[in-house]
Design brief:
This protein is an alpha/beta fold. The chain contains ten helices and ten strands. The radius of gyration is 19 Å and the shape is globular.
């Protein structure tokens, strides 16, 4: 919404709580069946709809196909096209701070949809990825799919030989998980960068532990802004006003 205002566009971005995706698509989106014309030009999706929406689309881009999930839909001439901006949203802040990722050792913690996007993006940049997860079966399946090694996330494990450690789990999120972290400060000593995809709160326990260990960090807010900027560009065809978007997101995320 802040981006549309800054770009002086007559558009709005509104949240919709959708429990039944099929009904939503039929009654509010698809031209042949919708009951009201809201002039949808596109929308973003979050879990649990990122995979289910694919069956409703006329096409998806290569990134979305490889990841198996869509978080952005563009409507053009009555056709629905799906994209995934999680991968570019994740990788751009990492490249901006770390530089080239070719040949570096990256540990990805978690085996859900966010991990899939991260692994795909990292492999596109020729990084060496190892997957860590608490659910061995889920991790093995993801590891086999992307042909990467899998390791168990153990309390005594040190990440000292890791260049970049990435948290894709909910640990550290406001609420029941707020006082949890995938690693202590001691486990992080020797790591070159910690990237936590959690953005609420802005400074998670993992980020605080990394700072205590003297390790540079990237928070989830940077990915949120970067993927949102890519969505803006898909929908409008114009460059996103990053400063205004960042200010709007940070204002919304402040306690």
């Amino acid at each position: 919404a802040a981006a549309f205002t800054a770009a002086n566009m007559n558009r709005v971005f509104i949240p919709l709580q959708v429990s039944d995706l099929d009904e939503f698509m039929a009654r509010m989106v698809k031209p042949e069946t919708r009951e009201v014309d809201l002039n949808f030009r596109g929308f973003s999706l979050t879990n649990p709809h990122k995979q289910a929406v694919i069956r409703h689309l006329d096409g998806i881009n290569e990134t979305a196909e490889k990841i198996g999930a869509v978080n952005t839909v563009k409507i053009e001439d009555g056709k629905l096209f799906g994209y995934n901006t999680d991968a570019p949203g994740f990788i751009l802040p990492l490249q901006a701070q770390f530089g080239s990722l070719r040949g570096i050792n990256v540990s990805v913690v978690g085996a859900g949809g966010a991990a899939r996007a991260c692994i795909y993006a990292l492999q596109q940049e020729n990084a060496n990825v190892t997957l860590f997860a608490r659910d061995p079966a889920k991790a093995e399946a993801l590891g086999d799919e992307f042909k990467i090694p899998v390791a168990t996330l153990a309390p005594e494990r040190s990440f000292g030989t890791t260049d970049v450690l990435i948290n894709t789990t909910p640990l550290g999120t406001s609420g029941d998980n707020e006082n949890a972290s995938i690693a202590t400060a001691e486990q992080l000593r020797g790591v070159k960068l910690v990237y936590d995809l959690v953005y609420n709160p802005i400074e998670t326990l993992l980020i605080r532990n990394a700072k205590a260990a003297g390790v540079p960090t990237i928070g989830g807010l940077e990915m949120l802004i970067a993927q949102g900027a890519r969505q803006f560009e898909i929908w409008t065809g114009e460059k996103a006003p990053l400063d205004e978007m960042a200010a709007g997101v940070k204002k919304t995320s402040s306690p």
